[in-house]
Amino acid sequence: MKINKELLLTELLFKAVRSSGAGGQNVNKVSSKVVLSWDLLGSKLVTDGQKEKLSNAWKNRLSKEGTVVMECDLTRSQFQNKDLVIKRFFTLLDLSLKEVKPRKDTKVPKKAIRKRREHKEQLSLKKVLRKRIDKSDF
């Protein structure tokens, strides 16, 4: 079941924070870093099965309260950072909820089996020919 992204946007909380690291005076006066937080366990748009699947997939991203926190400070623009963090969130959400098809076992082709056996015979013959010839065998 797909999640309505427009409705999910209403559940997301955004906070603008000052970026860390190098950047001179601009870093000290502009809050361009955007922190996105989403209460996964309290969400009304996600089913219980999806919550369980997301909880397993996002073990390292979830807080103890069941909140997902993501941040972005790539650009100097708060609006661009907000767009980037939203895109990251939705791609991560889509990847985590994607159904993985089970792998079908295939048979080993007869040609591959034949080729392996021929190779083993060649190696065996090579090793036999390396041995010394004993004169008592004649």
From TrEMBL:
<dbReference type="GO" id="GO:0043022">
    <property type="term" value="F:ribosome binding"/>
</dbReference>
<dbReference type="InterPro" id="IPR000352">
    <property type="entry name" value="Pep_chain_release_fac_I"/>
</dbReference>
<feature type="domain" description="Prokaryotic-type class I peptide chain release factors">
    <location>
        <begin position="18"/>
        <end position="34"/>
    </location>
</feature>
<dbReference type="GO" id="GO:0003747">
    <property type="term" value="F:translation release factor activity"/>
</dbReference>
<dbReference type="GO" id="GO:0072344">
    <property type="term" value="P:rescue of stalled ribosome"/>
</dbReference>
<dbReference type="Pfam" id="PF00472">
    <property type="entry name" value="RF-1"/>
</dbReference>
<dbReference type="GO" id="GO:0004045">
    <property type="term" value="F:peptidyl-tRNA hydrolase activity"/>
</dbReference>
<protein>
    <submittedName>
        <fullName>Ribosome-associated protein</fullName>
    </submittedName>
</protein>
